[in-house]
Fold this sequence. Notes:
Number of domains: 2
Shape: globular
Bound molecules: uridine-diphosphate-N-acetylglucosamine
Strand content: 5-15%
Largest sheet: 7 strands, parallel
Amino acid sequence: xxxxxVVGARPNFMKIAPLHRAFSQHPYIESKIxxxxxxxxAKMSDIFFNQLELPKPDFYLGVGGGSHTFQKAHVMLKFEExxxxxxxxxxxxxxxxNATAACSIVAVKMGIKTVHVEAGLRSGDRKMPEExxxxxxxxxxxDLFVTExxxxxxxxxxxxxxxxxxxxxxxxxxxLAYYREKAQQIGIMDTLKVTPxxxxxxxxxxxxxxxxxPSLEKILxxxxxxxxxxxxxxxxxxxTSNNIEKFGLKDRLYNIENLSLLEPQGYLQxxxxxDNASLIITDSGGIQEETTYLQVPCMTFRDSTxxxxxxxxxxxxxxxxxxxVTVHRQMVKILNGEAxxxxxxxxxxxxxxxxxxxxxxxQYSNINLTAPATTSI
Length: 377
Ligand code: UD1
């Protein structure tokens, strides 16, 4: 059985890595990787392939940046050519980036079995490009692999047939569990001269937070405040650094004392920094889950989350507006040791990818051989 795995942007790489490993170890599955090239910098892409031990992609579409319509249209045209030549049994897409929606539309239209890993997540906010990608992808895929209970409920509400939906756990947590120990050896703490629990880690890249000057200014105010308590480590996303420059805020940012401004970090470096942080301030989707697994306090600067389990069971707190006073109060509470304690959600156990491999093999293999022993779910 031939599976073509699609990646496009940074948050996809750590999801595909355990799947590719599980598929490659399966006796009857051939696993290939296609990269759309949405993220193309060495620091946004190549380093992840190296650290996650992914092979060079079998197919690289090289679409690069541009508006979402531009990206998706180019991906669709080029992906169709690959599918015609390659004819895989299954196309697998992960997450909610542009590649996820664009490639699933093409594959489904060509009658190829198409499956979505990390299905059913809903923020309820259609202004987020990712939410639109999620809704489109889940509406058309043949099988949906779900990470948390809310996903099961959302898909049931949308009328998706039960037999298409599989609650398997979280492949991103598979990568985290697999590489956690190795990340501790990576030396980034020594390089940055920081010690465990003595710094705040920050990431910020959502269009709603960084594409307009007033909210970027509030974020700078929050960083200035945080650096009065601890060193702030801030690996900066290209979208954010481009906008800081565009809005004339570079000098203000560069003049903040006790701020360690970094380029985007590798997977292992960032994992080590998350694991040892006293607090993480972010607007990322995935980091809400990673901090829940690592049981590190997390403040998420968003109005809603598509990952409510990270709030209900985990260590995540949603900060619904960027009011520096509210953020200050919450931050001080956490730094004073009053962070909420979380638990690890069901099936976030490092084995989600193996479950998916078994389900796909049972479902779509045309090979008439006795299937190997199955993993229990
Ligand atoms: C994308 C995903 C988002 C994910 C984020 C993680 C969608 C809709 N959004 O958003 O879900 O959380 O990735 O990073 O798919 N750029 C570079 N170098 C790169 C990649 C991008 O300079 O390697 C620049 C682009 O040219 C663009 C900006 O960064 O100006 C934003 O990139 P884009 O891919 O449009 O979306 P992200 O904000 O990264």
